[in-house]
Amino acid sequence: MRIVFDFGGVVFRWHPASFLARVWPHRVGSLEQGVEVAAQFFQNYEGDWGLFDQGLIGADEVVRRIAARTGWPQGEVAAVVRAVPDELMPVPATVVLIRDLLAAGHTLHYLSNMPEPYADHLSASYPLTEWFTSGLFSGRIKQSKPHAEIYQMAERHFGGDPQDLLFLDDHPANIAAALARDWQAVLFTDATSVRRELVSRRLLNG
């Protein structure tokens, strides 16, 4: 089985509300506020941030656009953009899951919406080539989930039939797009729940 991992919120820590509460304590005093501010800042990974994800604009331009759109000072917006790499720390339970899947003989790939500067950081900082046979970052290929084009590119890149790909992602829209391409898919909530699902599919021993 070829198992395909999303990165943010799956392999690497990504919880925008708590992230913004740490980086912008003067603007975000609670997780509830963090959810509201994150919706403005990241636009559900569409808009300005979606272009950044796809590698169509760079960090300086996304800062300029977010500041112009929201009225937040450019320096504060830039501080958030700079802080993202430090937020993207490996999730220990997912790393254990990756190692167990490799030990069970599965081939692992990744398919991640990730701006190019952050993709470069992850590639340089963590053993991606040990964990994964291959992968695609949206910022490098100028396509992003949940658009069908990135799944088509992934099928060609990973090889095999779509039915032999099992996708783990924490966004329902990305899961739905994978299922529409005849992939198998599991919505990731936490590594423990996904492990139980993989055991039930006889992809891991209980």
Oligomer: single chain
CATH topology of the largest domain: Rossmann fold
Q: Spans of 5+ residues with little confidence (pLDDT < 50)? A: none
| Strand and helix order | EHHHHHHEHHEHHEHEH
How is the main sheet built?
5 strands, parallel
**How many beta-strand segments?**
5
The general outline is globular
| CATH H-level superfamily title of the largest domain | HAD superfamily/HAD-like
Q: C-alpha Rg, in Å?
A: 17 Å
Mean pLDDT: 97
Strand order of the largest sheet: 3-2-1-4-5
Structurally, the number of domains stands at 2
Organism: Pelomonas baiyunensis
Protein name: HAD family hydrolase
GO molecular function: hydrolase activity
Keywords: Hydrolase
Structural write-up:
This protein folds into two domains: 124 residues, 3-Layer(aba) Sandwich (Rossmann fold); 72 residues. The chain contains twelve helices and five strands. The chain has a five-stranded parallel beta sheet with strand order 3-2-1-4-5, sandwiched between helices. Strand 4, helix 11 and strand 5 form a beta-alpha-beta unit. With 206 residues, it is α/β, with parallel strands linked by helices. It is 55% helix and 11% strand. The chain starts with a strand and ends in a 6-residue tail after the last helix.
